[in-house]
Amino acid sequence: MGLLDDTTHKNYYQSNTFGNYQFTSLDDIITQFQIAYVGEGKIIQKVKRADIAFHAQRGLQEFSFDTFKSIKSQQIDLPPTLVMPLPHDYVNYTKLSWADSAGIKHPLYPTNSTNNPFQIRQEDDGEYSFPEELELIVNNDFSAATLANNKPAPPWYRNNIPSINYVDPAADYNVSNEVLTFSHRTRTSHGDASGWGHAMSMWQKIDVSDQDYVDISAKGTAVDMTNGPGVLRFGLSTNPGDSNTKNLNDQTYADSGTNHLPEIFNLTAPDSVGSYLEWRSSDGTDASKELLKVDVSAYDEVYVLIVSYQEFSGINNTLTVTNYIDDVSVSNSYASTKLQPAVGNESQSSTWNNYKANTPSENQDDYQDDTYWPMDGSRYGLDPQHAQANGSFYIDPRLGRIHFSSNISGKTVILDYISDSLGTDAEMQVHKFAEEAMYKYIAYAILSTSSQPIHQQLAPRFKKERFAETRKAKLRLSNIKLEELTQILRGKSKQIKH
Predict the structure, then answer these.
(1) Higher confidence at residue 166 or residue 276?
(2) What is the pTM of this model?
């Protein structure tokens, strides 16, 4: 193919990087800028690579907003919560729609008639509440579970449940009678024939920016299996649970995760080895425990973490309910000094709950048999923003979520959004049509921020060159094809009879 990296036709067509030749990686842009612009007798005699990298990333962001084709898409099946989290590299949206069974997109329109405000906790007389022993965990008694499978609902999150032969689970979580239960079984894979199990974890991120010390408590039970005792832990950590749930006896061919290690609970408490409570099968049933004054003064957010596992020493292939936990609690040791959310409305205000429980006004109609304009002009004067039945949405910037109207539940929702192209290393690339514009952007950015007189003299010249190259890049990337434009103009030439 004539490429300097010796890529052959076979390498290309058997890879998953089709069309990648039209781009240059940001790392190559930085290296090539150093070669062409930096050195003795060149425009910039000396500059750190870190400085070039900073300006290159800033340039990539700016070009992504109005020059590059930086629109990305995500698709989900909207759950009953009617909520979609914003992508990790989200900057702004361009379009939201839902797709029908034919794959055709139906646009959704934003609504400005509602939102999801922060609902303040109040006393019975209406005064704002700054309580002592404030519960920081949402759904701490596991009374709220998803309707479909009775699993813990967000903001609780958990490990993916591993399977044996991709059919039977090797462990499980469940909420039964508002009690969180864990089920375990033995495995004999990964070269460990002695029998091993999974250390499962579940966690929730909580805000402790207003707290110096918190108290933790829970009621737990750990139960023996025929081939090993049960272990249950509850406490605080600076990290969520480990996605690697293996708890191997023999780690010759695979590594265990960290969920089973006490060190995962890495905060401190007085007279305590760690920031956690522990139940073993020898403790008996329904043992309530507490740990006072866990130091969280150095953190704004920490994770509430629950870990369950069995210390297997034999084979038991039956998935067995073993460990239980309920009434988990993390409360402030001293009175709060900042506004607190209302109980039950920590992330979902009553305004949002009411909106999603009803069909919004823009979706109410009397359409019959696909007749979208009833007789007698009864829809005359309707506000155009409400003259649609596709559905609506609004974005909650406080929580970083998109909220949808109730008629979108279960539908396939597509989010087209703008990224700054810095989401992953693979995305940090520049189209070759804009490569020269990127060089001029970096050069001007370095020259204009330098205090050297010669650089200040060169900066106006490169400002003009940057502008000219950016305009040229926009024209190149506009991708105007003469035949396509001609076809469109032919349609515009038709006479419309009134």
Answers:
(1) 276
(2) 0.68
DSSP SS3 for 375: helix
At 422, phi and psi to the nearest 5?
-110, 15
Residue 371: which pLDDT band, with cuts at 50, 70 and 90? Answer: low
Which pLDDT score is estimated for 148? 56
CA distance 164 to 79: 27
CA distance 424 to 49: 20
Nearest to 116 by CA among 411, 415, 338, 356: 356
Whole-number Cα distances in Å, 2 to 8, 15, 31: 8, 17, 21
Say which DSSP state 399 is in: T
The answer to whether 423 and 92 have CB atoms below 8 angstroms apart is: no
Residue for token pair 């709220």: 144
d(CA 453, CA 108): 54
pLDDT at 412 over 90: yes
Query: For the residues of 207-247, what is the DSSP string, one character each?
Result: E-TT-SEEEEEEEEE---BTTB-EEEEEEEESS---S--EE
Pick from 118, 85, 328, 79: which is nearest to 219 by CA? Answer: 328
As a whole number of angstroms, the distance between CA 455 and CA 450 comes to: 6
Among 79, 46, 67, which Cα is nearest to 147's? 79
The 10s digit of each residue's pLDDT in 418-477 is 888 887 777 788 888 989 999 999 999 999 999 899 999 999 999 999 999 999 999 888
DSSP state at residue 307 = E
